[in-house]
Specification:
The chain is of the alpha/beta class. Helices cover 38% and strands 17% of the residues. It folds into 2 domains: 232 residues, Rossmann fold (3-Layer(aba) Sandwich); 155 residues, Rossmann fold, CATH 3.40.50.2000. The strands form 5 sheets. The chain has a 6-stranded parallel beta sheet, with helices on both faces. A 4-stranded parallel beta sheet has the order 7-8-9-10, with helices on both faces. A two-stranded parallel sheet has the order 1-2.
């Protein structure tokens, strides 16, 4: 299995999903060797064996993996990058001569490449080197099937398939259309996504919504695209509520990017506060749209009602949910969305957009079109002011979220493995 991140070193849902899947597969008696560009040594390996790509040397004569002629498209990173955001907001694609890349004509020698990991500078060079190292790992490992997660790892999966002849499964956690929208597609990333899906023997999409995009926008044959909804890890570390304010609290927790709809959260807040000024709104996250959101909050005169926490992880997320009365996910295009499930596990009623994959499997969540600000505001107001409504969504939502187990997802995934094998 080729991934790009793994807990505790994660920047979003990709690492969380990989962790859940590997644990679920272990319960289904599937042995998984998970390859990451850089392992830190503190990963939980009780259910999965972590393979550190930085430990493997590759033959520099095989360094021409990309099919460009005299130029290579690199990514010039302007700030922190994570794989789900609108790429044009974070980096520019620039064409450079291959002066910094080992060419095929160099003398034969094996070298190791020390991956930086994460989503920093030279990202595309790391993607390229990852693919070359993948060939050597595929030669050294004994396995039945290859599984590659999201576009960063697809060429690694293709390389492993080429040298081993084993079937390839690729997993779509988010598409370029989710990240950048219909009119701002980054062709470099789109082409890598399509290349991986076309080369795969099976494609796993995290929702029916994503499956439709894969078939319609990428032209992938429908008979090899499977919907595989995510699940959620059991929450064994519930935090006690430490309410220091009498005001109700409405929370947005996620990346502050176009895809997540944070601007709609601000507009919804204004509508709610017109009816009830004793509500506070928390925007927990970081991203390229954060300055714009803060400016809009100031323009609307809501600064004393808004709190910006920055990126939260681990126990801080549990504490935030323990203080929250409503969780809101107004995503414009959400392939799945694990965070509403985490909120529901904590007993927090959730309001989510209909344009999210997770809405396909939830009964006890209020679902509204992301653009319908008034309807979303009414839903939030209703939960805040009608205890019976809040109680039923809290109680039933917790039961529903806890019923969604990674072992069940892995059972369906194992059947896909067996089919392609």
């Amino acid at each position: 299995m080729f991934g790009w991140e793994f807990p505790p070193h994660i920047s979003g849902g990709l690492g969380t999903a990989c962790f859940g899947l590997t644990k679920g597969l272990a319960a289904q008696k599937v042995d998984v060797a998970l390859v990451v560009p850089k392992a830190y040594g503190d990963e939980d390996q009780s259910k999965v064996r972590i393979v550190n790509a930085s430990d493997f040397a590759f033959d520099t004569r095989r360094s021409r993996f990309f099919s460009y002629s005299n130029e290579v498209s690199y990514i010039e990173v302007n700030s922190r990058l994570i794989p789900y955001v609108g790429v044009d907001d974070y980096f520019n694609v620039v064409n450079q001569m291959e002066s910094g890349v080992l060419s095929a004509e160099e003398e034969s020698c094996f070298r190791r490449y020390q991956f930086q990991g994460g989503y920093g500078q030279n990202l595309m060079q790391e993607v390229e080197k990852y693919a070359m190292v993948a060939e050597e790992i595929a030669k050294a490992e004994n396995f039945d099937v290859i599984h590659a997660h999201d576009w960063l790892t697809y060429r690694a999966g293709i390389a492993a398939k080429r040298v081993s002849g084993k079937p390839l499964v690729v997993h779509i956690h988010a598409t370029e259309y989710d990240r950048s929208g219909e009119n701002n597609r980054n062709d470099l990333v789109y082409n890598m996504e399509r290349e991986g899906m076309m080369a795969a023997d099976a494609v796993c999409a995290v929702s029916n919504l994503t499956r439709s995009i894969v078939i319609e926008k990428y032209g992938v044959p429908a008979d090899k695209v499977y919907t595989l909804h995510n699940a959620v890890e059991p929450n064994l570390h519930t935090a006690s509520s430490e309410r220091v304010l009498e005001d109700k609290i409405v929370t947005f927790l996620g990346r502050v990017t176009f895809q997540k709809g944070p601007e709609y959260f601000v507009e919804v807040a204004q509508r709610v506060l017109q009816k009830d000024p004793h509500v506070r709104f928390v925007l927990a996250g970081d991203g390229d749209m954060l300055p714009r959101v803060i400016q809009r909050v100031a323009e609307l005169g809501l600064s004393d009602r808004f709190h910006f926490t920055g990126f939260l992880r681990g126990s801080d997320i549990n504490k935030m949910f323990a203080m929250s009365d409503v969780y809101v996910m107004p995503s414009i295009s959400e392939p799945f969305g694990i965070s509403p499930l985490e909120a529901m596990q904590s007993g927090v009623p959730v309001v989510i957009s209909k344009q999210s994959g997770v809405s396909e499997i939830l009964r006890y969540a209020i679902k509204v079109d992301f653009w319908d600000i008034d309807a979303m505001a009414d839903a939030i107001y209703g939960i805040l002011h009608y205890p019976a409504l809040s109680s039923i969504f809290s109680e039933k939502g917790m039961q529903e979220a806890n019923s969604l187990k990674w072992e069940d997802v892995a059972f369906r995934l194992k059947a896909i493995y067996e089919k392609v094998i």
